[in-house]
Each structure stands twice: as C-alpha cells, then as structure tokens.
Design brief:
This protein is an alpha+beta fold and 90 residues long. The chain has three helices and four strands; from the N terminus they run βαββαβα.
Amino acid sequence: MKYLLNGHSLALEAEHCNGCGRCEEVCPHAVFRVLGRKAVIAGRERCMECGACRMNCPAEAIAVSSGVGCAAAVITAMARGAEPGCESCG
C-alpha cells in the first residue's frame, strides 16, 4: 500500500544507527532493511508515519512525525471489527 504523503517526515540518521534491526522488525509495511549493519529506508512510499520505528529505535536514529497514517490504521482496524487502538503502530 502506498500512502498519500509517502513518509515525507521520515528521516534516518545512519551515523547513529547501531544496526540492531528493531525498525525492520516493528515496521508494519517493511519500510526499513538492515544492510551492511546499518538500517536503510527501502520503501518510503509505504510509510504510514505511525512512529513505531522511532519509538523502538534504541539509538534514536529515526525521526518521524506521527500523522494521519496512524489514524487510518485505527479506523481500518475499527472497520474490520477489531478492538479500537493502533495495532499497526505497536
């Protein structure tokens, strides 16, 4: 799925990345990959700006403004009959 703003607020400071892979693990849309012991943004257009990567990065190498993507995830979950909340965000 592509999001309208294509992760425009997503930023990765590779020099701070420790290569732990948490961003890759928690991202619901596979925006990140760890290559050569550093994370890279592999799919910015898939970023829904939920903030899961930022919240789980122990090196604080990721910045993103949580935006409408997170709200869309909540609304979609509710439409499917799931418990209200942000399952996609973690």
